[in-house]
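Q&A FORM
Asked by: J.P.
Topic: structure of Histidine ammonia-lyase

PROVIDED:
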Amino acid sequence: MDMHTVVVGTSGTTAEDVVAVARHGARVELSAAAVDALAAARLIVDALAAKPEPVYGVSTGFGALASRHISHELRAQLQRNIVRSHAAGMGPRVEREVVRALMFLRLKTVASGHTGVRPEVAQTMADLLNAGITPVVHEYGSLGCSGDLAPLSHCALTLMGEGDAEGPDGTVRPAGELLAAHGITPVELAEKEGLALLNGTDGMLGMLVMALADLKNLYTSADITAALSLEALLGTDKVLAPELHAIRPHPGQGVSADNMLRVLAGSGLTGHHQDDAPRVQDAYSVRCAPQVNGAGRDTLDYAAVVAGRELASSVDNPVVLPDGRVESNGNFHGAPVAYVLDFLAIVAADLGSICERRTDRLLDKNRSHGLPPFLADDAGVDSGLMIAQYTQAALVSEMKRLAVPASADSIPSSAMQEDHVSMGWSAARKLRTAVDNLARIVAVELYAATRAVELRAAEGLVPAPASQAAVAALRAAGAEGPGPDRFLAPDLAAADTFVREGRLVAAVEPVTGPLA
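REPLIED BY: S.T.
REPLY: Here is the structure written out as tokens.
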């Protein structure tokens, strides 16, 4: 595990912190300010708990059962019961990095001092993360309103030493055994604490933050593959001129055009419109790449603004306010996060679509301006990359289905008390699949475009230095170049890993300088 430490305070958690803890095993520490804020808020909750008047979440039932006042002797049982009953998830296990993000973001909110949780509970949450203990969380159970209830409940169950969890060695064991093995004492929940551990948008937010990190890499990678395809198709880079994009000043469009122009600098392949047949301008999938990639980039920027606002939020119900009030609210509703999760699935699908169109153009002898059919070595004897495009098309088709918004749906729950929900968790889950698919789609275009560029080079045309760097790095990564048909899946898998890990961007930046 990475020994980098993330300090959790009363404010200031960043997207980089989330990725560091969720993916890279960064350690977590509570700041002194967070401990003080936790203690101060707990005094307020304890004072309210001692009063005869009912306070939601402190001395009442929950949801549609909030009208019942709970006596002192039943309140510890109430908190245990809400965790046990709400840990009702079903289906496959959720990925380790998602659960770690979920736990970390709940800890972030708890440490804000607005939830009324005791400092020792927050410390135990940090101890679980640092020990590499990951609760077993299931795919289904969150409607994205009243928080990601079932997923967070499975995490809280582990805090209590109940249920199952995965140890740092990847083995699933009873949570009590894992806690004991790491010297962690299970928590005994007091008033409000069970509810406070369940009531947040932490799962959908964690998946949003990680998707943004992945998509940033994929959009830069797609700018590179678009440039390679343009080059292989003997297209013109004149459409990338900054003055053309300045008169339609969408920020992302200008960034993508600049990335492509820098990749193509020094190319001997671009601008050959009249060499084989009159061609006034390139096809839309080539010519409009900056407009499509750029619009997606602008969507990412908006989603990052929403994620930043949510990272600065304390999502709980009720919340403890600095003036001592404990107030019910609706901040747990996941609509702001759900909408951008769905928006990202839409733009990711369209990016995958335009990548596939360029791949198809590279493989079609009637549109590729002199390249062999399917980039095959001996077309007819060899099929070349024909079925690689089938695979890419299947992925694009699934991405279009995944682009159907989850947040446009709502289904009432809790005896109509919770009669409108966000479905943000569902939006986040399908976005993760879409991001995985997009990496594969970009990888197929890269594989086809680099093969096509090499075939042009064999004809005596000199590719751009950045293109040569991309080809060399991909070949070194195990994705082979032109030649007779061979078992293709390993090459495509190597290209996928190469793109997914950011190695395509890293390969060209020594030539182009940093790409946005």
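FOLLOW-UP: The first helix runs from residue 15 to 24.
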